Amino acid sequence: MRFLTGAVLFCAALFLSATRPASAGEVTLVPREDGAVEIGGRLLGFDGEVYRLETIYGPLAVNAAGVTCAGAACPGPGAQVTRIALSGSPALADMLMPALIEGFAAARGLVVERGVEGRDRLFRLRLPDGGPLRAKIALASGSTGEGFADLLTGAAQIVMADREILPEEIDRAREAGLGDLSEPFRRRIVALDAIVPVVAPDTRLGDPADGLSQAALLGLLTGEIADRSGPGGPEAPVTVHLPGQAGQGLRQLPAARVLSGRRPVASARRHGRAAAVATAVAADPAGLGLARVSALGDAVQVSLADGCGTRLLASHQSVKTGDYPYVAPLSLYLGRPLLPRLARDFLDYLATPAAQIAIRRSGFIDLLRDEIPLGRQGDRLALAIAEARHGNGLRELKRLVATLDGAVRLSETFRSGPRGPDARWRANVAALAEALEAGHFDGRRLILAGFAEGSGGSEASAARARREAEAVRDAIRAAATAADFDWVRLDVAGFGDLLPVMCDGGGRKTGPEQSRDRPSGDWARRLNRRVEVWLR
User: Residue 237 forms beta bridges with which residues?
Assistant: First the structure.
């Protein structure tokens, strides 16, 4: 047998079809150019752009643009319809992805026909007035874990994920020949959400605006604190409501971050959907639950308190900047790098302003860049003044205000994960690099302001914060290869433990009651150690 050479052919053990096979018969792919070689084998699948064959040399993929197919098993014109199968989290499958599919179709002049295929919701994209069918997009709604399982069996090409991929899922994908799904290019962050504590509008657990400290929240969720009451009311047992099916490990859910590896109380009531948690809590005056900010319904979000007077709520701004601790990015994991053309176009569409507007209208947090004036930092400036050390601390605070005066904070904020830069860190680098290359900041000054946790002394923390800012600057410069840095200034500054998001015990002295309500070190340090981007 002779084989095709050049750009028409490449090995595809990694690119095995995740669509249903068009036929199990033998075919021969004949090159359109004279002098090239042909290939024969058993047809595994055809997605409208790439033929996938099983040959004596193993699985191969061949670009359809360079060949014609000969044989009874060749797909006919009606088979040249792109099929994209996605499986995973209901947070994406039930609301977000349908809205994005509709927007994508409208942008390409296609109409959408909705239907059902087995357990999948099916979206048929075709030309108007009964024109030819261009694509089928199938959405299977289950859980992120089920999405990765479908990827391994070939039932899905893309996983809709509301959490990070687990180490064992990475291992199983590698064993299945799908490569390393932890590589940055295999994941696309689509939108942002957050996990928040919620109570009923007529709750007996106290005023939600007063907030819960991290210690109190953990105590209630784990059962260490069994009773709680509002001012002047009798203590009453608390009913805990959590997402996920009974018996499902909470580790599989974004809510696991709130519990910091601890087990929830055994009596916790479990609900299959995030919206069901909010609905149950809203009807339970003694209920406390963990819900998504995108699906609050009638439930009321409880603020997070730090014992210094700061209250954190998951707002549009605090989720985008990461100043709220329990942000849950919604992502797509790509099962194979080579997707059909229409699938690649859909992924490109997700970065457009039209898609971001659809995301916001669906109740999620979009990825568009926001500008936040210094004047809207009042709470943080007040906390900075209260936490500032005598002498040099106030002088440093004046330097901070002088540096940032007249500038606006951009929503891109850099916080490294436990193992270094994470997906959001890298996404922020890419977004700023793209803006620099497009000239959006020409004639202006970008200030990368590093902040550190309150430990090690003001000079040591300032030096540590500056190093973090320099690392971000270097990453942006490396990514923005087409940017002209003669037209924009990219400065760094280190402000140490000034301007904390939450107090972490490194500043002024407090009484026993306040100290007990302060957040644990990891929680506060993760928020306070960051690099902000300011534009002047």
Answer: 227
